[in-house]
Write a structure and sequence with these properties.
single chain, 445 residues, mainly alpha, two-stranded antiparallel sheet, globular
Length: 445
C-alpha cells in the first residue's frame, strides 16, 4: 500500500482555504480549476485520482459541487472540523461581499466603482477556467474511450440541453459495462488498467463508515437545517417573509442538481413573479453580482434574501431584517450541502478501490470534463458578449452570442490574463489584482 500525500497542519490548511475563499471566482469551472491548481498541483495535498474521485461524487449531489468538493477534501484531511472550515471559508467571503454590496445598494444605489473592479476580475478568471480544462482534460482523458465520452457529454449538454443527472447516469452505466467488456479503458490508473497509486492510498480511520456515525450525522444535520424552518412557521406563520424564504430555499437545496446553472432561471422567476421580493432588473443585477464575486453562483440567494426581507421587515428595522433574511436564506441552502458530504463521503472512500465503482467513476470523470468545458464556454460567452441568446430548433438548444455585442475591454483583459498566467506564469493573485485594477480604471474612464 502506497503512502498517502502528506496531510497539512490544521492552521496551514485554514490559511489556504481562507485564500481560496477570497479568490474562487468564475463559477464551478473556475473554482474546480482553482482548487485543482492549489491542492493537487502546487501543494500536493491530494492526489489527482482522489481529487477526481471526490469531484465525481460531488457532481452527483444537489447543491454547488465546488463548495461540496472543498468540504469533502477538508473532511478527508482534518475530520469534521476540517470539512466545516473548508466549506464555510469557501462561501463566507462571498457571502459577506454580496451582503455588503446589498447594503450599499439599498442605501446609495448604483456602485460603478465596484462593478468595474469585479468586471476586471471576472475577465481574469477566464484564464483560470481555460487552464483548468486543459490540465484536467489532459490527465483524465487518457484514452480514446474517455475522450469520446467527454465529447459526447459536452455535445449533449451544450447542444441538446440534456439534464445533467441523465448525463451522469448514462456515463456511469457505460463505465459499468466497460468494467465488464473493456476494463483496460475504464481505470482510474494508467492505460494498462492498473488502478494506480491513488487507489492504494489508505483510508483514514475517521473515514470508516459506521451506523452510529451515520445516525448521529443525520440527526444533527436535520436538526440544524429544519429547526429554523419549523420555528419560523409556528411562531410567525406561513405568510411571513422569513418563513417563505426558509421554505423556498430549503426546497432549492434539494433540487439544484448540476449546480446553480440548472436552477437560477427558476429561482429568478419565483423570487420576482411569485413572491415579489425584487424587481426583474434587480434580479439580473443580482445574477451578475454572483457571477463576479467569489463563492458559488447560488450565493445570489443572499442578495435575494436580503432584499426580500428588507422590503417587508414587519416590526424590525429594515436593515436588520435584510441581514437576517440574507443569513437565513444562506443557512438553509448550505447546511444540507455539509450533510450530504458528511453522510456519504465515508462510503465513497470505502468503495474507492472497488473495480466496478472505479470503472463507473472513471466514465463519470470523462463526462465531467465535458460538463466543465460547457461551463467554461458558457462563462466565456457571458464575459465577452453583452448579448447572448438561446437558439432552439431541430431538437437543439444553442447559446448564440451577438457579434455586435462583443466587449473589447473584456476581451483585452482576458487575453492579457491568459498571457500573464499561461505564457509568463504570473501568479494567480497578482493577475487578479492587476485585472481588477485595470477594470476599475476602464470602468471609471
Amino acid at each position: 500500500m502506497s503512502a498517502a500525500p502528506p496531510v497539512p497542519g490544521f492552521w496551514e490548511a485554514f490559511r489556504v482555504w481562507l485564500k481560496i475563499g477570497f479568490i474562487n471566482f468564475g463559477g464551478p469551472a473556475g473554482q474546480i480549476a482553482l482548487m485543482h491548481r492549489i491542492l493537487v498541483e502546487e501543494r500536493r495535498w491530494i492526489s489527482e485520482t482522489r481529487f477526481l474521485h471526490a469531484l465525481n461524487y460531488c457532481m452527483l449531489l444537489p447543491g454547488p459541487e465546488a463548495q461540496q468538493l472543498a468540504t469533502y477534501i477538508g473532511w478527508l484531511q482534518h475530520r469534521t472540523w476540517g470539512g466545516l472550515v473548508a466549506g464555510l471559508l469557501f462561501i463566507l467571503p462571498g457571502f459577506l461581499i454580496i451582503l455588503g454590496i446589498a447594503v450599499l445598494y439599498v442605501r446609495y444605489g448604483e456602485l460603478d466603482w465596484m462593478q468595474g473592479l469585479l468586471f476586471g476580475m471576472q475577465a481574469a478568471t477566464l484564464a483560470i477556467v481555460i487552464e483548468a480544462v486543459i490540465r484536467v482534460g489532459r490527465k483524465a482523458l487518457k484514452n480514446r474511450a474517455m475522450k469520446l465520452l467527454a465529447v459526447a457529454s459536452f455535445v449533449a449538454i451544450f447542444a441538446f440541453a440534456a439534464p445533467f443527472p441523465l448525463i451522469v447516469l448514462a456515463a456511469g452505466l457505460i463505465g459499468l459495462a466497460g468494467a465488464r467488456w473493456a476494463p483496460q479503458f475504464f481505470s482510474l490508473g494508467d492505460k494498462t488498467g492498473d488502478p494506480g497509486e491513488a487507489l492504494a492510498e489508505p483510508v483514514p480511520d475517521h473515514a470508516q463508515p459506521s451506523l452510529r456515525r451515520l445516525l448521529t450525522v443525520l440527526c444533527v444535520g436535520l436538526l440544524l437545517w429544519l429547526t429554523p424552518v419549523v420555528l419560523l412557521w409556528t411562531q410567525l406563520g406561513p405568510q411571513h417573509v422569513f418563513t417563505q424564504e426558509s421554505i423556498f430555499f430549503s426546497q432549492m437545496a434539494v433540487v439544484t442538481f448540476g449546480g446553480a446553472y440548472a436552477v437560477l432561471a427558476y429561482m429568478a422567476q419565483q423570487a420576482v413573479e411569485q413572491y415579489g421580493w425584487l424587481a426583474p432588473g434587480e434580479m439580473v443585477q443580482g445574477l451578475a453580482l454572483a457571477e463576479t464575486t467569489p463563492g458559488p453562483l447560488i450565493l445570489v440567494l443572499t442578495y435575494v434574501g436580503f432584499l426580500g426581507a428588507y422590503r417587508d421587515p414587519g416590526t424590525l428595522d429594515p436593515l436588520l431584517a435584510g441581514v437576517l433574511g440574507a443569513t437565513l436564506s444562506t443557512w438553509v441552502t448550505f447546511v444540507p450541502c455539509f450533510l450530504w458530504i458528511f453522510l456519504g463521503a465515508p462510503y465513497i472512500e470505502r468503495l474507492r478501490g472497488n473495480r466496478w465503482l472505479s470503472a463507473a467513476l472513471t466514465a463519470i470523470t470523462a463526462a465531467v470534463v465535458g460538463v466543465i468545458l460547457n461551463l467554461s464556454v458558457w462563462f466565456a460567452l457571458h464575459v465577452l458578449f453583452a448579448d447572448v441568446d438561446t437558439w432552439q430548433g431541430y431538437g437543439l438548444s444553442l447559446s448564440v452570442p451577438n457579434p455586435a455585442s462583443l466587449d473589447f475591454a473584456a476581451l483585452l483583459l482576458a487575453t492579457a490574463a491568459m498571457l500573464a498566467m499561461l505564457r509568463f506564469h504570473l501568479g494567480l493573485i497578482r493577475t487578479l489584482l492587476a485585472c481588477g485594477a485595470a477594470g476599475l480604471v476602464l470602468h471609471l474612464v
